Description:
Blueprint: H1 11-16, E1 27-32, H2 38-53, E2 57-62, H3 67-80, E3 84-87, H4 96-104, E4 109-113, E5 126-129, H5 132-146, E6 151-157, H6 163-176, E7 182-189, H7 194-206, E8 215-218, H8 221-233, E9 243-248, H9 251-258, E10 264-267, H10 273-284, E11 292-294, E12 299-301, H11 302-308
Parallel strand pairs: 1-2, 1-3, 3-4, 4-5, 5-11, 6-7, 6-8, 8-9, 9-10
Antiparallel strand pairs: 10-12
Helix pairs in contact: 2-10, 5-6, 7-8, 9-11
Amino acid sequence: MRFTPAFVLVPALALSFALAGRAAPLTVGFSQVGAESGWRTANTESIKAEAAKRHIKLIFSDAQQKQENQIKALRSFIAQGVDVIAFSPVVETGWEPVLREIKQAGIPVVLTDRAVSVSDPSLYATVIGSDFVEEGRRAGRWLADKMKGQAVIAELVGTPGSAPAIDRKKGFEEILADHPGMKIVLSQSGDFTRAKGKEVMEAFLKSPQGHQLNALFAHNDDMALGAIQAIEEAGLKPGQDIVIVSIDGVRGAFEAMAAGKLNCTVECNPLIGPQVFDLIEAVAAGKPVPRVVRAKEGVYDQSQAAAALPTRQY
Length: 314
């Protein structure tokens, strides 16, 4: 069962994770997806900086976008006897066995950025992150308005099986269902990386449908930036010949918008370190926490890029 975006207090669960009477600082095991994008790098820096600020011992592991690496890290955290485990799951499924091991060890779990699909919701205390479905809807609404309901679209999908890839596609397609003149004719994973985004876009442009494309939806900015390179190398003008909307709101996207090469980015805020450690400290103390916590985010287009660029923190 996947989580729903509702705020539900779970005091019984939180109390079961109570770690009262602590004298030493908290020890937290954190498993990160990897370093596949500028967004992820900013997210990691936010987590590390906040842990240092609070004098929390952080045991950090980079999964390099492989679930097996992440599962090994989680089991290592159990063996090291950490107080709380936090992780951003590579994909949604396949976590139940290791999460049951963690629960048996009496260690609370905080999910960050992405959710998991499990049959027992008590296997984690809370999840903090973005509403990926709504991000997809926002991208779809912007594109429908920009293209006046008529578009031949290529889609660069995120890592297969990951929550943002599944949900952003779902939200985007919800909007397209109301606009029969907008069709996705090409869709393939670019694995959230710039290099793969460029490679897939090159293949799109060489395909039989490639000459028809006039819009691109990329599940993150890094894939969009790679696609922009491919579009330029094909002799086309990104942002003009092919209208591009992507998700994340990284500095590189704002620079591309200011240069007229990217048309819109839907913000997904990576700077959630303070919120993450607020939750970690709460569950460690046995306090009730919201089941789901959302980050505040916006939508930016080319007209806002130059003014917003100096204020971007990532």
